[in-house]
Design brief:
The protein is mainly β and about 290 residues long. The protein has a domain at about 180-270. The chain is built from no helices and 23 strands. The strands form five sheets. A ten-stranded antiparallel β-sheet has the order 9-10-11-12-23-19-18-14-16-15, with no helix packed on it. A four-stranded antiparallel β-sheet has the order 1-2-3-4, with no helix packed on it.
Length: about 290
């Protein structure tokens, strides 16, 4: 793994080659933050199977990020290949529609990565080509004091439009049943059933319902305004609070938890036309 050190914390980032056992068809292999460790307080992030030292690659741990729409998935039949941005060529093995990596785990070829470290900054770049798509992907992780910033840059150098649907999946340890607060008005949407695991308290903070069966996990969509700057103040058992800043227009955000972890999942959506590029970042105040 690669390590970034500053102000009493260490950020451990997977090596896309040496740490191959942790890489699956879901999370972006470049810039995959596996753990952040406080020298005095220990590991700060969790995962669906945490503290299992060898979690399933689909579940992962730490601060992974994912590109959810594979290139070529719209017309791929069982047995065909698609390209999962940040991962590589994946075989469609399941007839479940629409295609999702939760049903298709077979990686045929991993995307190549170049890695450059300069002090507390790590940059991973990858040229990813598939059919008429040709993308330059850059993942930059910077640790400034106790502020951790993950930035993504994509350039479309191919002939086809590239659908980009990215989300961060930070896995926090539980701090009791309190979850956190959002900087924008938020509610459960009326157009989907309420899952039952979460509720808002009188002050507007999100909480877990103690009567829910958390071994089964709970996925709950949140309804929030599009385009407004979003900050999340996540409760943390060791730090008290972690402040997350989404430096992009959040198009969609569910919250998910099981008995081991909780995760807000902010999404960024766009269609990247040939010759164009886009960049966004997410910041964690530790």
């Amino acid at each position: 793994m690669y390590n970034l050190d500053s102000a009493g914390i260490r950020v451990s980032i997977l090596d896309p080659v040496a740490d191959r056992k942790h890489i699956g068809s879901r999370y972006c292999a470049g810039g995959y933050i596996w753990q952040v460790t406080d020298n005095a307080k220990g590991p700060l992030f969790a995962g669906p199977q945490f503290p299992e030292p060898e979690p399933r690659p689909f579940d992962g741990q730490g601060l992974p990020e994912a590109f959810e729409i594979p290139l070529g998935a719209a017309d791929a039949k069982v047995g065909d290949s698609v390209w999962v941005i940040g991962v590589g060529k994946v075989k469609r093995t399941s007839p479940v529609k629409p295609f999702h990596v939760r049903d298709n785990f077979t990686i045929l070829d991993l995307a190549p990565w170049k890695v450059v470290q300069a002090g507390a900054m790590l940059t991973m770049t990858s040229r990813q080509t598939f059919r008429d798509w040709d993308l330059h992907l850059e993942k930059r992780t910077v640790l400034k004091g106790r502020t951790l910033i993950s930035t993504t840059l994509i350039k479309n150098m191919g002939k086809a439009d590239a659908p980009i649907r990215w989300f961060a999946h930070p896995f926090f340890p539980h701090a009791g049943f309190a979850c956190g607060t959002l900087s924008v008005e938020c509610a459960f949407p009326t157009y989907v059933p309420v899952a039952g695991g979460f509720r808002f308290n009188a002050g507007g903070a999100l909480e877990r319902n103690p009567e829910y069966d958390w071994k089964a996990g709970c996925y709950q969509l949140l309804n929030l305004p599009f385009g407004a700057p979003l900050e999340i103040k996540q409760r943390h058992p060791a730090l008290g609070e972690v402040k997350i800043e989404c430096r992009f227009p959040v198009a969609w955000m569910p919250v998910w938890a099981n008995q081991n972890t909780i995760s807000f999942e902010p999404y960024y959506h766009t269609v990247l036309h040939p010759g164009n590029q886009t960049q966004w970042s997410i910041q964690y105040g530790l």
